[in-house]
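Lab notebook page, bench 4
Experiment: in silico fold of construct C2
Operator: M.H.
Input chain length: 110 residues
Purpose: comparison with the prior construct
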Amino acid sequence: MPDDYDQVRYSSFWPLAVLLFGLLMWTGYQDFAANKQRNVYDSEYQSALPTIGEAEKVQGKYIALIKDLVQTSNKDPYAAQIVKEATAAGLLHQNSGGTNSTGSPSAPAK
């Protein structure tokens, strides 16, 4: 009886072929799904471009208005009160030294 088992030889071809075919199918599906999702994101971005452009315009106007208000607050007590209340409410942040620069902060002193 043990001699019968010694004579049977199994090939690893079919299990490896099935494994490689499955891996190929899975990779193809992942590529298809990623491309489909990329197309969805691209179409959403393209449809949002007008809104993004409007938001950038409004942001530019808002920044210019706030800078003008901060400069005016040095001379006008009403503007100073508005800046003070906006700062207290957390709507406006002034850097120390009275400048509102957008540059990176300097290194801390040692």
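Observations: The mean pLDDT is 86. Residues 13-88 form one domain.
Next step: discuss at group meeting.
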